[in-house]
């Protein structure tokens, strides 16, 4: 034993001196380095870098981040090897550990010398259709056109090609020699083995962990939350991580542990006692701190109005408002389309028009290039909070896709004549403040949009490409629902000359041209063959995706998944595609569609594949009687056979005959492939590169456009705006020439889905709400839908029953069919009626007496309006405005205040002397007010006028009666005004612990104390703390630990419902459960409202939720202090001796309904901005065996669901960023986008309260056979809350060098949340399974006959006869001449 201790001690001392030496070697560097492109994380070694390898020793980026970022940068056309290398080196600035010196506030500072070198290498490349040397005269001009800030290297810090930069190290991370690594590793191994042999591992490791945690905790509390200081702290911790270990080990020998042994008896009673104390403390906080009971008394004492609601009347009123909303936008779009028709026809028929030779010859008034290298003059540009960018409100801009020929006379002409649209754009914007972008996308790809805005740029300053012809609004206007099968030739010959990559790009382009109304299957076609040795290689066609026997709706999840599957395809197999065509016709037949159908065959047209035989071969003997193998004949595939086969398949096909297009991705010429397309009303197209695919596929797109018989406006499904305005809906109108009926393009007018949501929400009350569905029964607007701000791609729309009912029933399905019918009506559901609440990203269902649906179609739009009322909503009760109230102040909002309203500067923190902190203030959601905003989000009245109206005593009730607030808003504000004095009167200790106190009402108001600025987008009724309270009315509920919106600290929220005034006792009361409001009760379970208040069932109508924020540090101290007042001198986190050479701990955790940790001592050391490291962390990550035992008792239930609109992260070590800055000050080069859209399978847990009650309200078990630790745990609910206390007594952790069993246990029970590779399977199955929903699908559009794209093809027999005749004729002529 002494030898081991001595060895460990000497090792620790050696390690200390080695690390001290390493530290001293670092001391020469004094510049703080951090990764500003990655939200200021610290750099570290990345030995696996495959690009930017000169930063391996110390890098800001990971290889997967390089892949994600570099992959979006398209190479310059015609770039030399030197140019590509320079561009690659420039892109590698994101990996440089000292990037904070030259990438600041989304701007890149570049040295002029590097610009000159870059220009010299790339001046012969093509950019925007021109040679770079013709566009820019030197490197500085070229860099400045990328929006770089060019500096002199001798004067400023700037990015440069410099040897010292390539080999730079980081002050934040030491790079010890291999000797240091070996010694440190050996020391750790020796220490671990010593501890294991001595059977006292917990004593030493627990001591080290506790001392380190204590140090970390102290440091984290002392460091302020400024980003620079946090990064300094991170760097300090990175450099001194090993030093922590060394000092702790030294202290281990110097210091003893003074603690008494734990009393192992009565663990259960001790835990229950602590749970009771915690319950008392939490309810005391709710009473004394939150003042929820006082708020309830205020509403109990209020006078109330009762209003019987006529659902049909409300529905029709909202219907008229929405139809007017849609109709107005459609009329404006039609105006633009008519104007374009006039401008085009006038331009074409005017013989005096001269088309300029180039776009440069057009004036600035006519052609403002969205890709302009020069910044637009300041007099034209203004920052708009509506458009979240600097825009030109008096002019449009033109965007031309990168791969469109800018010298095409038609392109130049379109830019010229379309400039006259600006006047109409401006007029429309003035007529309708709800519209956002207005634009025209021409069939050539020219995109003129208003208001004018510079194109987005990537991280090295090149403009992002945009082709209107691939956008949802354009596609929706140019084609109705269509069904398609794409046959991809994946035979081995496709490997040659980039054929395979061109085929993949072509397939993706076709997929992107489809929308939710279309259906698609893709077949990867290949056939078997024999090798020269006679071995049969089994290959056959397969349908990509989950559903193999019918076409699948082209949802966004389907698209994403198909892209992933296509990326993984390999060229292999033979080129016999006859089986694939049989499958294609079978898929179309099974889909039973009368809609226009297509088969697109993408191939190289090669009639043979190298080294492939179509026969197995055989053996024979030579003259010496020796056996040898004769390979089979090489395969020669005759596409003539395919032509004949398709003729036969068409005869058997029962639906509308499909149109067949053949796309060649090679230079092969084959008349039979052309015949295959032309005999089936299609054409043969050739794709020579992935450059400008819409042009190369013009035959297909022209056919789609020409076959569309409708010239009417269409409405797109909501999609994510390319310019960052969230979910958009577009009314799109196809445009045709009046004289020639030639298709010209598509007009679009946008509005945000938020605008539509606000209109719908304005007419809600109580728990009632309205929603909008499309013709396919997809929810378009619904309060349970994910917020558009949380989306990273176009949304995946759910069927309405996935949001309205827990389980689809025949009754609701019948209701859904009526909702999307063309009649106004209503339907009441009484069997298993339920109301949903959004909690932890899930819908929590609670029973209600009935749900009454009212529905109607919206004329002029492909949508339907539905109103959902519960029983409590049909007799609406709202408070009267009291005459006795305290003056209320309105929070000036940073998105509302502007130059027009200079009340308070909201770009700076609140000034304590301004008085904002001394009062409670009112925050109001936009939907709590009438239309008070103009087109730049500036209020028509300022904050002081709002206050005056809010505090007025004029008897005006609600918007319809001439007020500026919703019904009940002023009453709520005046009733809650009495809380301010109560909150101020709290004792000093309470005030210190509490960060904020507030009450949010169902009318959309929020009173907060002390006053602070809150973003206008903040809606308290959608927050977790609000909905948690709704699920457990009357209980004090606790949120997860999360990052607060005000100052960014870790906080916990306690909340409690406040109900409408105490109801009158009914004449007769039920005697069992779910008694009526006002009936006598003894506990919450007696009441239908689930809240027994003063021995009477509370009103079911919740008027609001009161909340209280505690800083997490203060909350942790509070819990620890509560347990210290318990029995036997035991308390949470207490360390004590529990046996010979064993040190144990009493661990305490607070857990929510989802088995996620609310309280864990390790969260104290996590910086505030690393929310992924403390938010929604599962108990299983700490103690898998506890979760295992709770599952065995049926107390914990595993759940799995698929999230089709999930957000994945490329890296989990990038700090979250809460943006409190003025968005108008952002630079042109955006930082790393860590999040991306994906499909996730989420595995979660849920606590079964019924099962816990059956076990006496607690679970007591030993951690026997636990490979991780030993001890006894008690799991018990904290009474009248949503929180559970887990206490582990005599906790002793087993630690060995490689405890694989422990890691395995945790990996099994930790709930997974992972990206799935075939995530659309579940959604596709639902779509197919419920397709009686064929009843809900749009009717197929009328199709115009289209002139064949091919010349007439003479039949094979006719061709042979013609050939014989011509041959005979030529012979006769020859004979006659010879004579």
TrEMBL record:
Membrane topology label: Single-pass type I membrane protein
Record carries keyword Calcium: yes
Coiled coil (UniProt feature): none
Entry GO CC: voltage-gated calcium channel complex
Intracellular or extracellular location(s): Membrane
InterPro entries the UniProt entry points to: Ca_channel_alpha-2/delta, Folate_rcpt-like, VWA_N, VWF_A, vWFA_dom_sf
VWFA domain segment(s): 483-704
Signal peptide coordinates: 1-24
Gene3D superfamilies registered for this protein in UniProt: PAS domain, von Willebrand factor, type A domain
UniProt entry keywords in alphabetical sequence: Calcium, Calcium channel, Calcium transport, Disulfide bond, Glycoprotein, Ion channel, Ion transport, Membrane, Signal, Transmembrane, Transmembrane helix, Transport, Voltage-gated channel
Pfam family name, one: VWA_N
GO molecular function: voltage-gated calcium channel activity
Predominant location category: membrane
Bilayer-crossing regions: 1352-1377
PANTHER family: VOLTAGE-DEPENDENT CALCIUM CHANNEL SUBUNIT ALPHA-2/DELTA-RELATED, VWA N-TERMINAL DOMAIN-CONTAINING PROTEIN
The protein's name in its UniProt record: Voltage-dependent calcium channel subunit alpha-2/delta-3
Organism: Lingula anatina
């Amino acid at each position: 034993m002494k030898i081991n201790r001595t060895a460990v001690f000497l090792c620790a001392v050696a390690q200390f001196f080695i690390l001290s030496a390493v530290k001293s070697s670092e001391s020469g560097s004094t510049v703080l380095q951090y990764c500003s492109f990655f939200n200021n994380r610290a750099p570290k070694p990345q030995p696996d870098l495959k690009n930017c390898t000169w930063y391996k020793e110390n890098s800001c980026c990971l290889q997967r981040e390089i892949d994600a970022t570099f992959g979006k940068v398209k190479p310059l056309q015609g770039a030399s090897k030197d140019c590509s290398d320079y561009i690659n080196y420039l892109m590698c600035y994101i990996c440089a550990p000292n990037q904070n010196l030259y990438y600041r506030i989304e701007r890149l500072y570049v040295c002029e010398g590097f610009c000159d070198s870059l220009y010299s290498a790339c001046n012969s490349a093509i950019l925007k259709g021109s040679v770079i040397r013709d566009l820019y005269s030197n490197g500085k001009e070229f860099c400045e056109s990328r929006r770089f800030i060019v500096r002199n290297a001798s004067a400023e810090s700037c990015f440069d090609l410099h040897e010292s930069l390539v080999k730079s190290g980081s002050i934040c991370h030491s790079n010890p020699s291999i000797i240091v690594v070996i010694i440190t590793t050996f020391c750790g191994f020796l220490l671990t083995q010593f501890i294991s042999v001595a059977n006292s591992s917990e004593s030493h490791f627990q001591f080290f962990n506790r001392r380190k945690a204590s140090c970390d905790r102290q440091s984290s509390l002392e460091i302020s939350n400024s980003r620079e200081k946090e990064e300094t702290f991170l760097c300090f911790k990175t450099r001194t991580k090993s030093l922590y270990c060394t000092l702790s080990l030294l202290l281990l020998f110097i210091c003893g542990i003074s603690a008494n042994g734990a009393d192992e008896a009565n663990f259960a009673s001790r835990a229950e006692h602590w749970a009771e104390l915690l319950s008392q403390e939490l309810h005391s906080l709710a009473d004394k701190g939150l003042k929820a009971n006082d708020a309830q008394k205020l509403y109990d004492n209020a006078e109330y109005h009762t209003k019987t609601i006529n659902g049909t009347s409300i529905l029709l009123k909202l219907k008229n408002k929405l139809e007017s909303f849609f109709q107005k936008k459609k009329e404006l779009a039609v105006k633009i389309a008519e104007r374009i028709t006039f401008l085009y026809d006038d331009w074409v028929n005017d013989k005096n028009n001269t088309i300029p030779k180039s776009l440069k010859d057009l004036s600035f008034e006519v052609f403002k290039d969205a890709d302009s290298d020069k910044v637009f003059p300041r007099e034209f540009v203004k920052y708009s909070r509506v458009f979240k960018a600097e825009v030109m409100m008096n002019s449009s801009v033109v965007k031309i896709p990168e791969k469109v020929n800018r010298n095409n006379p038609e392109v130049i002409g379109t830019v010229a004549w379309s400039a006259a649209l600006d006047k109409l754009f401006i007029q429309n914007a003035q007529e309708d403040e709800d519209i956002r972008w207005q634009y025209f996308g021409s069939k050539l790809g020219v995109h003129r949009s208003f208001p004018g805005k510079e194109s987005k740029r990537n991280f090295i300053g090149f403009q992002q490409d945009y082709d209107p012809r691939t956008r949802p609004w354009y596609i929706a206007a140019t084609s109705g629902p269509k069904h398609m099968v794409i046959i991809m030739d994946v035979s081995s010959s496709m490997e040659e000359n980039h054929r395979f990559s061109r085929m993949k790009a072509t397939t993706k382009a076709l997929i992107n041209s489809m929308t939710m109304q279309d259906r698609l299957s893709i077949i990867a076609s290949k056939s078997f063959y024999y090798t020269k040795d006679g071995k049969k290689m089994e290959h056959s066609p397969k349908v990509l995706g989950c559903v193999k026997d019918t076409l699948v709706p082209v949802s966004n999840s389907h698209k994403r998944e198909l892209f992933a599957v296509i990326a993984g395809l390999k060229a292999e197999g033979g080129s016999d595609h006859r089986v694939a065509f049989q499958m294609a016709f079978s898929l179309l037949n099974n889909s039973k569609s009368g809609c226009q159908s297509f088969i697109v065959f993408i191939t190289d047209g090669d009639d043979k594949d190298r080294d492939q035989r179509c026969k197995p071969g055989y053996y024979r003997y030579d003259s010496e009687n020796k056996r040898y193998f004769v390979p089979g004949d090489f395969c020669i595939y005759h596409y003539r056979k395919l032509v004949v086969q398709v003729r036969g398949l068409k005869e058997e096909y029962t639906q509308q005959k499909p149109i067949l297009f053949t796309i060649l991705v090679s230079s092969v010429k084959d008349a039979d492939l052309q015949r295959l397309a032309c005999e089936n009303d299609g054409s043969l197209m050739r794709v020579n590169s992935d450059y400008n695919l819409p042009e190369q596929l013009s035959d297909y797109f022209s056919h789609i456009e020409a076959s569309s018989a409708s010239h009417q406006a269409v409405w797109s499904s909501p999609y994510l705006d390319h310019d960052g305005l969230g979910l958009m809906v577009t009314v799109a109108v196809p445009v045709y020439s009046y004289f020639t009926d030639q298709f010209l393009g598509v007009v679009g007018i946008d509005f945000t889905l938020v605008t539509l949501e606000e209109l719908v929400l304005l007419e809600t009350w109580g728990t009632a709400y309205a929603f909008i569905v499309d013709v396919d029964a997809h929810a378009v607007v619904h309060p349970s839908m994910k917020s558009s701000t949380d989306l990273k791609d176009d949304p995946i729309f759910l069927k309405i029953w996935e949001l309205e009912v827990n389980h689809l029933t025949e009754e609701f399905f019948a209701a859904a069919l009526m909702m999307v019918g063309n009649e106004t009506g209503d339907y009441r559901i009484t069997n298993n009626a339920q109301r949903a609440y959004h909690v932890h990203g899930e819908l929590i269902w609670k029973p209600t007496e009935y749900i009454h649906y009212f529905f109607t179609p919206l004329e002029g739009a492909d949508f339907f309006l539905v109103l959902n009322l519960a029983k409590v909503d049909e007799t609406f009760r709202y408070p009267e405005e009291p005459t006795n109230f305290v003056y209320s102040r309105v929070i000036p909002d940073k998105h509302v205040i502007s130059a027009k309203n200079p009340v308070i500067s909201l770009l700076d923190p609140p000034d304590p002397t301004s008085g904002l902190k001394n009062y409670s203030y009112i925050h109001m959601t936009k939907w709590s007010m009438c239309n008070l905003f103009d087109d730049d989000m500036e209020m028509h009245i300022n904050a002081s006028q709002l206050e005056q109206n809010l505090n007025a005593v004029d008897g005006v009730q609600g918007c319809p009666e001439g007020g500026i607030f919703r019904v009940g808003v002023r009453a709520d504000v005046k009733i809650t005004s009495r809380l301010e004095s109560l909150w101020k009167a709290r004792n000093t200790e309470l005030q210190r612990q509490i960060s904020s106190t507030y009450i949010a009402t169902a009318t959309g108001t929020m009173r907060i104390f002390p006053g602070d600025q809150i973003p206008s987008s903040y809606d308290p009724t959608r927050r977790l703390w609000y909905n948690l309270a709704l699920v457990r009315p009357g209980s004090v509920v606790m949120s997860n630990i999360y990052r607060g919106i005000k100052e960014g600290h870790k906080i916990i929220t306690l909340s409690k419902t406040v109900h409408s005034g105490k109801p009158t006792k009914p004449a007769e009361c039920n005697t069992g459960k779910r008694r009526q409001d006002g009936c006598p009760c003894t506990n919450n379970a007696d009441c239908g409202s689930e809240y027994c208040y003063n021995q009477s069932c509370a009103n079911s109508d919740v008027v609001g939720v009161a909340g209280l924020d505690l800083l997490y540090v203060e909350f942790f101290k509070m819990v620890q202090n509560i347990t210290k007042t318990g029995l036997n001198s035991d308390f949470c986190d207490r360390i004590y001796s529990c046996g010979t050479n064993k040190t144990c701990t009493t661990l305490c955790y607070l857990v929510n309904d989802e088995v996620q940790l609310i309280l864990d001592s390790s969260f104290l050391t996590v910086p505030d901005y690393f929310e992924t490291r403390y938010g929604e962390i599962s108990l299983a990550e700490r103690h898998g065996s506890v979760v295992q035992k709770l599952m065995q008792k049926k107390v914990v239930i595993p759940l799995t669901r698929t999230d089709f609109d999930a957000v994945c992260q490329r890296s989990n070590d990038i700090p979250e960023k809460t943006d409190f800055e003025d968005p108008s000050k952002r630079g042109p080069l955006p930082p790393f986008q860590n999040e991306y859209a994906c499909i996730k399978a989420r595995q979660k847990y849920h606590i079964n309260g019924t099962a816990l009650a059956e076990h006496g309200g607690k679970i007591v078990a030993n951690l026997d056979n636990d490979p991780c630790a030993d001890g006894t745990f008690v799991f018990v609910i904290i009474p009248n809350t949503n929180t559970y206390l887990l206490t582990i007594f005599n906790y002793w952790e087993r630690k060995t060098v490689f405890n694989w069993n422990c890691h395995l246990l945790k990996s099994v029970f930790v709930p997974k949340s992972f990206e799935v590779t075939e995530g659309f399977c579940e959604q596709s199955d639902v779509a197919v399974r419920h397709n009686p929903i064929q009843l809900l699908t749009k009717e197929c559009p009328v199709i115009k006959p289209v002139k064949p794209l091919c010349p007439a093809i003479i039949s094979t027999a006719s061709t042979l006869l013609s050939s014989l005749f011509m041959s005979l004729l030529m012979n006769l002529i020859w004979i006659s001449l010879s004579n």
